[in-house]
Amino acid sequence: MPLDFKVVHRSKLSRARAGEIHTDHGIIRTPSFIAVGTNGTVKALDNKTVEEIGVELMFCNTYHLMLQPGPDVVARAGGLHSFVRRRLPIITDSGGFQVFSLAYGSVEGELKGKGTKKQANQVIEISEEGVTFRSYRDGRKVVLTPEISVEAQKKFGADIIIPFDELPPYHIRDKALQESLERTHRWQLRSLETHRSAPLHQSMYGVVHGGINLALREQSLRFLLGHPFEGIAIGGSMGKTKDEMRSILRALSENLPNDKPVHLLGIGDLESLPFGVASGVDTFDSSYPTKAARHGLVLTRSGPLKIGRSIYANDLNPIDETCRCATCKHYSRAYLHHLFKAAEPVKDTLLTIHNLTYMVDFMHELRESILEDLI
Amino acid sequence: MPLDFKVVHRSKLSRARAGEIHTDHGIIRTPSFIAVGTNGTVKALDNKTVEEIGVELMFCNTYHLMLQPGPDVVARAGGLHSFVRRRLPIITDSGGFQVFSLAYGSVEGELKGKGTKKQANQVIEISEEGVTFRSYRDGRKVVLTPEISVEAQKKFGADIIIPFDELPPYHIRDKALQESLERTHRWQLRSLETHRSAPLHQSMYGVVHGGINLALREQSLRFLLGHPFEGIAIGGSMGKTKDEMRSILRALSENLPNDKPVHLLGIGDLESLPFGVASGVDTFDSSYPTKAARHGLVLTRSGPLKIGRSIYANDLNPIDETCRCATCKHYSRAYLHHLFKAAEPVKDTLLTIHNLTYMVDFMHELRESILEDLI
């Protein structure tokens, strides 16, 4: 069954809404923070722990999973849920983002989770059909088209899937951006057709493009709403500053669908979340909290804290004594500081548990605020 | 209270015995495998998980903990158990092993767990008083003497502690070895005196030295048994081959105490364990299973398995379907293979859980064999 989106409450103050996305693998209460599990696992956590933290949706990358372990292995295991042992909902992207990052180099740090081989990626050809590139893993030629991406995503079997799209660079002339947008739309329709030929239990979100050109953004949203996508994602370049991102959300906000869930791709820092929610976005994915944890940056109500600082060497308090996470229940700042200084791998596990819990609870509080019309 | 050692059964076939070491933090059922948690944590596992696996004793390194976080921080936290949140027994060594590895370079890979700074260690002076060396962490001068080592171990508060000893290199003339042994004994008596001036709940094991000289080994054991150590550890160079190690154990076996626990320092590979147990050794520490896990070497009843091999890419079975560990209960070989190939940090956690469980269960089975006079 495709997803069922129920709006529980619409704020009287803004476009924010509290909702529930019902899927075959459970309910995502929105607004919700989506943890990034590129290779089918959140970095340094096992999937059981991710569920225990209360992460209701996990984001996996088709690009990575297609190259390793490959869609067929996952399919034989009975799909991604079964392969990675996650009972709760999963979303996969199309692979487009990674492939075009390679081509244009416009997005930094996108391939951090790429494994051990350092061989550079290389885009060989971009055509109407799709993209040909060399695998960073073993140098073999890989072709990615709307059909191939969606077929891979069918084998993965995530609850929410994303059509193959083109991601033009930030610096692009208007005419080229317009052409790119039209191709993205054609690719998304091909993706949608492949999806609808065998929907299974999956739902596909159309991805709004148009870069920082607000007219194109609005045009893209209108176009997608004319087709039977089960949700809307906002993708592509969101600009270089928070202001540019806010302009785009402001331009789209009014026309975002009332009856379909809205996802903001790749943005989930603490500063952007309230504005996104107030603009009508329901779900956000970002590697921010997990990456921050690996750098010793710990999220707290009074701002992020650098656990490696010497002031924590003797601090026997937990990170946050009101926090429900296993790290705060068991360990002191002094111990976490020690693990960090000693470069013990378990520091990543313990700090990621905390940071993800923080994000989940932060979103629960935003949800409460919506229910009380405070946001 | 110092430890209380109860022998439950002595094998009719060998010197093997099934026992219980009672400590203030619980009972260690012997023979037992001791996990290495150099910096107060087993690599890639949190201490709660280590307890859940059933690791009844954890081995921490005074050398590392003395340099970071330092004995005072640990003491202020209420001791190592409280600082690292382990409720079960802990043993600390004296730091001697690491310091002398630096001086003589006789032991490879001893400093794998040393943290991020790559600065070389350096021994400045060895005298009757003790050893002066430069910290690998920050280059500062550190003095280690029997008194300083034991005082640090008092602050750590482990259940079992080790006297400061000298570790001569494998290649040493007999006369020098004899002199080293005498100094080691003097240092151990100074350590014992410091210990007995404030025993707390701790017990100190005397460390048998003498390298591969069997006469000196026997002399060392006799010497130690003449002093009120609460247990015996077998340390120093055990030779370069398994045969040399077996000769040493054979030479000591007959005179090992009946009423005190016996520990074999730094040896715990699957091949050596049954021979050690049959020789009268009760506990063994080794980083073998945890290090193996990080290299993708998985322990099974039919021999170790390299999870990175391509034959596991499609293998949807658990590592071992009869294994009780969380990894085998939840994840397939194919998924673990994928995590390994993708260099996902959680692979170390999942494979270490399995390997440590394997060791714990392996020792339980050896214990059963003793109870049935089969070993």
Plain-language structure description:
With 375 residues, the first copy, chain A, is of the alpha/beta class. Chain A is built from 14 helices and 16 strands. The first copy, chain A, has helices spanning 47-53, 62-67, 71-76, 80-84, 96-104, 146-156, 174-196, 214-225, 242-253, 272-278, 288-294, 326-330, 333-341, 346-371, and strands spanning 4-10, 17-23, 26-30, 32-36, 58-60, 90-92, 122-126, 131-134, 141-144, 160-161, 203-208, 231-234, 262-264, 283-286, 297-298, 305-306. The two termini of chain A are 32 Å apart. Helix content of chain A is 39%, strand content 18%. The model of chain A is unreliable at 106-119 (pLDDT under 50). In chain A, the strands form four sheets. Chain A has an eight-stranded parallel beta sheet with strand order 6-5-4-14-13-12-11-10. The first copy, chain A, folds into two domains: 4-103 and 146-294, Queuine tRNA-ribosyltransferase-like (TIM Barrel, Alpha-Beta Barrel), CATH 3.20.20.105; 297-352, no CATH class. At the A-B interface, helix 13 and helix 14 of A face helix 13 and helix 14 of B.
